[in-house]
From TrEMBL:
Record protein name field: AraC family transcriptional regulator
Species name: Steroidobacter flavus
Family matches, as SUPFAM superfamilies: Homeodomain-like, RmlC-like cupins
Residue span(s) of domain HTH araC/xylS-type: 190-288
Pfam families: HTH_18 (PF12833)
Annotated keywords: DNA-binding, Transcription, Transcription regulation
Phylogenetic classification of the source organism: Bacteria, Pseudomonadati, Pseudomonadota, Gammaproteobacteria, Steroidobacterales
Chain intervals for the UniProt region annotation (Disordered): 296-321
Keyword Transcription: yes
Length: 321
């Protein structure tokens, strides 16, 4: 994709940046962008689609992600979320490795954190009890100053480094950004995302989108694959399944009706696509989410939350290269 460079400014009398903010919509506040700093982002209040490199996934409140340097990313809220009274809320920490000093990071005791840094080049989704601990520590950063504040950041990194089973890789291993960043291509991708989201209930063809962005179908196909790492058909399918998941959680509407309203006229194909992306069928997804949402909030992100092994689970021991 063609991301926009973001210039990160450190806080006064600090070696890193900490932000706790609210906005009408994350998609409007931060478009597809990258920066040379590591970023730890906690989406306190918002739900929608998260883009990290070539990873496209649905996110929900309390989404927590660690991003490596120069990894393009953005969060697109649900269409109607900005109309809510409080909008979106996020806590973000941005820092460079040199915040700790090169010699310091070379110490043997810092080896787990260095492995964490290397694993974060593709983005890491932090889950379970680790997410709950990190979120609590991120809050406390805003009450600290001086060395205590820097040690607070180091403590957060150590918590993540010691819990590889709660870390899941997002972008593919060979993903990297190109140097030919242009405003035109960035705007194209953002337009395509909005247009597809607004028209999920009908067939949106590649030739239709190509015309709208001023490209021939073959040129559009090459552009889109290079920009997102996805085929256009695959991209549309991901957004449709994400919308199905939202409706499965938020409504009592029948699964067949939800699928058809999201553009699936062939239910057998819908079931195959859902299983391929979510690892379970729609009925199992709805039942699983209902069990999780019925639990007290602390348990929902704590050690009692049951999760199946994910193919992108990180092994910190094997990520040293």
């Amino acid at each position: 994709m063609e991301p926009k460079f973001e210039n990160v400014q450190t806080d006064n009398e600090s070696s890193f940046c900490s932000l706790w903010f609210s906005c009408a919509r994350l998609a409007d506040d931060h478009t597809w962008h990258y920066h040379p700093e590591f970023e730890l982002s906690w989406i306190v209040r918002s739900a929608g689609t998260r883009f990290v490199g070539d990873s496209i996934e649905r996110y929900e409140p309390n989404d927590l992600v660690l991003l490596g340097p120069n990894l393009p990313h953005c969060w697109h809220d649900e269409t109607d979320l900005g109309a809510q009274e409080h909008g979106s809320e996020a806590v973000v920490l941005q820092f460079r490795p040199e915040s700790f000093g090169g010699d310091f990071l070379g110490l043997p005791e810092l080896a787990p954190i260095n492995r964490l840094f290397r694993a974060s080049k593709c983005g890491l989704h932090i889950q379970g009890e680790t997410a709950a601990r990190v979120q609590g520590s991120m809050k406390s950063i805003f009450r600290k100053t001086g060395l205590e504040r820097l040690l607070g950041l180091l403590e957060i990194l150590q918590v993540m480094a010691q819990a590889p089973n709660d870390l899941r890789s997002l972008a593919s291993a060979d993903y990297h950004i190109t140097n030919d960043i242009t405003e035109t291509n960035r705007q194209r991708i953002e337009f395509i995302h909005r247009y597809v989201r607004q028209n999920l209930g009908r067939e949106v063809s590649q030739s239709e989108i190509a015309t709208l962005v001023g490209l021939t179908p073959p040129a559009f196909s090459r552009f889109f694959r290079k920009a997102t790492g996805q085929t256009f058909v695959g991209f549309v399918n991901i957004l449709r399944i994400n919308e199905v998941c939202r409706l499965l959680m938020e409504s009592e509407e029948g699964i067949t009706d939800i699928a058809m309203n999201c553009g699936y006229n062939n239910i057998a194909n819908f079931n195959r696509q859902f299983l391929a992306l979510k690892g379970m069928n729609p009925t199992q997804f709805r039942e699983q989410r209902s069990r999780i949402l019925d639990r007290p909030p602390v348990q929902a992100v704590g050690a009692d939350m049951q999760r199946k092994p994910h193919p992108n689970r990180i092994s910190m021991a094997s990520s040293a290269e």
